Amino acid sequence: MTRMIERWFPSAEVSANSDKGWGSGNSEISLFMWFAKRPTAQAKAATICSLLPWPDDPAEQKRLQDLVRKAMKGRYAAWSELQSEIKKANPESTTTLDPFSGRGMIPLESARLGVRAFAVDYSPVAVLASHLLTSAPFEDWSEEPELPFGEERSHMLASPTDRLLGDLATLFKEIQARHASAMRDFYPRHNGELPWGYLWAVTIPCQECSQRFPLIGSYELMPGRGDREAVSFYIDADRASGTWEAVVTSGKPTRSPTLTNAVVNGKKVAGKSAICVYCSHVHPLAVHRRLLQEGLGQDALVLAADIDARSRKTFRKPTTAEKDAVMAASRALADESAFSPFLPAIPDEEIAPGNNNIIGPSIYGAKTYGDFMIDRQTLSYVRLARIINELGDELTAVGLSRDYVRALTGYATAVVVKKLRRSTRGARFQSSGGARVGDLFVNEGSITFSHDFFEAGIGDGPGTWMSISENVLTACRNLFSGLRGAPASVQRGTATSLPFVAKTFTAVVTDPPYDQMIAYADASDLFYVWVKRCLHNTWPELAITADPHGGQDKSQEIIVKRVRGAAPNEHRTREHYDTLIAEAFAQMRQVVRDDGVVTIVFGHGEPEVWQRLLHSIERAGLVMTGSWPANTESGGQQGKANIETTLTMACRPAPAGRPAGRKGTVEAEIMAEVKRRYPDWERWGLAPADMLMAAAGPAMEVVGRYSKVLDAKGEPVDIYTFLPLARAAVQDAMAVTINHEPLAAFDARTRFALWWIRLYGRQPQAKSELRWQALASSLDLVLVRDLVPDADKGVRFITSHEYSGKINGDSAVIDVALALAAASEEGLQAMGQVLAASGRATDDTYLWSAIQFLADRLPDNDLDSIAFTRVLRTRVGIGNAAEAVAMSNREEARRQEIDDAQLRLI
User: Of 431, 168, 206, which is closest to residue 296 (Cα–Cα)?
Assistant: First the structure.
């Protein structure tokens, strides 16, 4: 059976829905902190297109396409119709697997359809996240006993999810009350109210005057808005007494903060320097970083923040009682007992070597995950973890099932994990948005460190349990609304050794890790050390790890690890990734049914990464049979690659007994197959740039017909060779003409330039796209790099004002055109000189066709569009000027010959 995804995919609908509304996945990611966000629109489309057939009848094809488009209008749109069609196509049973499930975005779509879904992930944190999203909500908990606290609500239940929602609200409220009681001695009230929180700063000893001063990056507290005046503060220091204090004042900051860009002897010092408030001595970045690494930093309480009766945030100096409470918290933390013989109260799990680029605090002296917070924050989390464990025991004692207790404590821990994002030295105070607590994951997948940071208290306000638990409840209300489907089966495991018998699954649909984009385990170890402490009674298996540092096991993690600093034993290399991802793909091939597909969602801009991915697919015994692009990453950044487009690729087990093929034959078949499919792509509305990516599918399908491809000398050909050919085949299939002249008739450099303008105009593109286009044009990148220079964190086509090439008789058409546009403001004489220097006739068809194309394709307000139009309008005059220049040159040459002859006679 041919599956729909092998012949069609709703690329336009996926792109349209991936950054907003139901299809963005924003509701789903609000439940639990994780680093990869697969839009639900793409997950849904990949799942249903992998399960539906592709009929031979064009009318049936259209009917199913219309059904899928209808399904892409909402979370449960066309639900009953989809179920019916999927069951019809798979009468024996329907099962799906995602062996890289992460937070569970792909298995969730199977669960919502009522399809039996299996989710596997190597990270215990991801397993917890996936369980809370894809399994627990779909269970019927209505027969569970009432909670031993809160109001009885059994008579109020309208649906099974009402029970779970109500119990979560009760549980979160109970945790809030118990936690506030456990911490009340360490967060004293001010004027009868609990403060929102406290601003802290690390202090260092001045290397000039020896006085200790705070490192603060901004003095702004509240920006002015409407009739409300801005609020700021500054540090007032008394050198005689060696003391300092924060002074809150109205208006914008008028002084420079102590951590700022400094100028010494007229030169800007690299990085942020620490400026002593006593003697103004400048400590460059390397100096104040070294002081922290040597353990000379100390935390100091700077300001307290309250929320008044009108919900406005105000700031003041901390009271003596508040300062005493900080010291009391440190004493209490030292007395906290361990959770178990192997789990101390304060996390002692070590930060692995080479993690400076992932774990920012390690650059500034942090050695363990217990070093991430001030003592009072750590004490707060220790007691919060104890409360969750105690509640788990109480719920078990009154008869709640093991699974329900695990679900309830799991959701409570989800709040803890989300709170951790705003509860370490990376949680900066942010004045924007009305004063809030910043996220320590400013750069996705990398934990930040800040010298000044904000500690949320035990009352209300951003970053508190009350605020974040309500945020999680809101996410649950949204996700549980109208819930349909069946629970997924979630388990921890490795994709390289799947615990399933062969030919089990109708489809394997997965979003594997992208090379070195995100170090999932390293970035989530902060969560893991606290998840272990919160759930060591109810989820004891999560605490089991073979990692020598106490974090999550990483021996089989399939990533390429970027390291900074000494990491002599780092095994997650490119070789490790390539080997294990091929093993994972091979496992997928084993467990998928003969009539099923392995669907892989992958996004990366680098041709080299794609080359390695294709090799891994080939090594696994899979053949790509479909490839569909969608713009799914425009709302954010995925690691270092900053990708926007991902491919949804369909693969099948490679058929047995395939013959060897010849390179020329395979190339011809690829060209023919792309040409055959092009009318469908055009009819379905794929943009030319998307067709370039879609062409990978038929190209690899053709290559997959052969056991190997040999060149004229009998040597095997790299399958990656055929990707640029597939892109070139799209260009041929489009039969692009340039003012009625075929694009193929132009010189190679000009073909590249005009095709680039055809695809992207003046819009910036990723640098990787330049490499792809150069490959497809069979040009060395250096030969076209000047045409597409760096711009806007990517590349874009050159403007004529930037062009500086010298025109001669060997110049490409695009160079002459750019030079003419650049000279157009200088007048006919200058343009005539360019045309004459090129040696081209005044009626050169290709030159004027290219200029007309550029004038038409560039935006109307583009300066070059105006310049090219100016050139076209003065075409006759340019020709006359060129003739005059040529005549003048000939006359000059004749005179020079006469002069030379006379010299020879002398």
Answer: 206
Cβ atoms within 10 A of the Cβ of 321, count?
Answer: 11
* Element holding 527 (H helix, E strand): helix 520-534
Q: pLDDT category, 153, cuts 50, 70, 90?
A: low
Q: Which pLDDT belongs to residue 642? A: 39
Contacts of 518 by beta carbon, 8 Å cutoff, 6+ apart: 35, 36, 444, 445, 559, 638, 639
Match 């093991």 to its residue by tokens: 402
| Nearest to 686, CA basis, from 136, 11, 6 | 11
CA separation for the pair 708, 660 (Å, rounded): 5
Tens digits of per-residue pLDDT, 814-855?
A: 999 999 999 999 999 999 999 999 999 888 999 999 999 999
The three-class DSSP label of residue 250 is strand
Domain ranges within the chain, ordered by starting residue? 1-139+484-513+572-654, 160-188+328-357+372-447+458-481+520-558, 197-318, 736-891
Instruction: For residue 267, give the H/E element and its range.
Output: strand 267-268
Classify residue 139 by its DSSP letter: S
Q: pTM, whole model, 2 decimals? A: 0.87
Q: Which long-range contacts (CB under 8 A, 24 or more apart) does 653-660 make?
A: 653/589, 653/592, 653/594, 653/621, 653/622, 653/623, 654/621, 654/622, 654/623, 654/704, 655/623, 658/704, 658/705, 658/706, 658/707, 659/706, 659/707, 660/706, 660/707, 660/708, 660/709, 660/710
Three-state SS annotation for 741-777? EEHHHCCHHHHHHHHHHHHHCCCCECHHHHHHHHHHC
SS3 category, 881: helix
Distance (Å, whole) CA 101 – CA 637: 20
Instruction: Report H helices in 657-766.
Output: 663-683, 688-694, 696-703, 722-734, 748-760
Write the pLDDT tens digit of every residue in 342-399: 999 999 999 998 888 889 999 999 999 999 999 999 999 999 999 999 999 999 999 9
Q: What is the CA radius of gyration of the chain?
A: 33
Tokens matching residue 512: 């594997």
Q: Give, in order, the Cα–Cα distances in Å from 861 to each of 164, 532, 754, 761.
A: 57, 59, 19, 13
Q: Which residues on neighbouring strands pair with residue 490, listed in sequence order?
A: 119
User: Rounded CA gap, 773 and 777, in Å?
Assistant: 6
Given this model, what pLDDT does residue 768 score?
81
The strand pairing partners of 600, in sequence order, are 510, 649
Q: Hey, what are 641's tokens?
A: 């690659």
The residue type found at 858 is L
Q: Is 692 left (phi over 0), alpha (psi -120 to 50) or beta?
A: alpha
Tokens 């106490």 -> residue: 550
Calculate the alpha carbon distances from 187 to 377, 421, 459 in Å. Answer: 11, 21, 9
> Is 1-139+484-513+572-654 in CATH node 3.40.50.150?
yes
For tokens 């200790």, name the residue.
212
Q: How many helices (H) and strands (E) does the chain have?
A: 27, 28
232 beta partners: 220, 249
String of DSSP letters for 9-20: --HHHHHHHTTS
Does the pLDDT of residue 522 top 80, yes or no? yes
Is pLDDT above 50 for 639? no
**Joined tokens for residue 103:** 């937070």
Tokens encoding 562? 């970027």
Distance separating alpha carbons of residues 313 and 165, to the nearest angstrom: 31
Written as one string, the DSSP assignment of 337-403 is PPSBTTB-SS--PBPPTTBTTTBGGGGGT--BGGGSS-HHHHHHHHHHHHHHHHHHHHHHHTT--HH
Q: Is the dihedral of CA 212, 214, 215, 218 positive or negative?
A: negative
DSSP string across 77-126: TTHHHHHHHHHHHSSS--EEEETT-TTTHHHHHHHHTT-EEEEEES-HHH
> Whole-angstrom Cα distance, residue 401 to residue 396?
7
Beta bridge partners of 478: none
